[in-house]
Amino acid sequence: MIEFKQIIGRGTRLFDGKDYFTIYDFVKAYEHFQDPEWDGEPQEPVIVKPRINREGIDPIDRPSKDADLTEVEPETRTVQTIKIKLGGTDREIAHQISTSFWSPDGKPMTAVEFVQRLFGDLPELFKNEAELRSIWSRPDTRKALLEGLSEKGYGTEQLIEISRLIDAEKSDLYDVLVYVAYAAKPITRNDRVIAHRSLIFTRYVGKQQEFLDFVLAQYIREGVGELDRDKLPQLLVLKYHNVHDAAKQLGSIESIREVFIGFQQYLYDRDAA
Fold this sequence. Notes:
- The chain is mainly α.
- It has 14 helices and 4 strands.
- Helices cover 48% and strands 6% of the residues.
- The strands form 2 sheets. A two-stranded antiparallel sheet has the order 1-2.
- A hairpin with a 5-residue loop joins strand 3 (101-102) and strand 4 (108-109).
């Protein structure tokens, strides 16, 4: 409730040139936090009646004889790109709208401040890109890394928000971390699959390839969360309707788990990229 009110409150702050603000409430949070005693009842929109003269025309809206009646394209908002110098190398982030982040102690931060802080904290979690790649290629160590990031104030939602700012919404969260830490250009999840598919399929055959094709399609569509160990039962049900039928196609549950965990090291293999 408090965080929701803070979000609304920040939107209502005034400054020159700000005529309105927009709240994107994808999960209908307002339905849970309605508080008429605090917010008051919703106001009806003010409808201004036009002033009509004898000719039935609003004199304010009457076009002049020399008026240009050509349809005007709506104003488009230009996306500004700002550069942050981290470790001697520039990183670019989009600055279309003001995006607010929060520090662990609850203080608001700009996107630039948040990325700078993330850059400074990443060396505590991995020493270099090779170590990050090794950590990320296994579900258990990847989960531990994400938990460590979350404890420092960099949850999955915040990393996804950064992916939007660096034009990497279709990329893996791995690419977000690599970009911030080492200025490596992000690639899309689809491009990663294309680059590594042949390597993966040299290690697996037949029905295993069919299953991994399905898993990779889910990864492209939904993101790296589809590769979590806990996601495996749901993937099997989606593909084979139930785990029993999956075992008929792929072998024991243990062997299926080995395939699911094992192929991920090839998905993030450096040499195939």
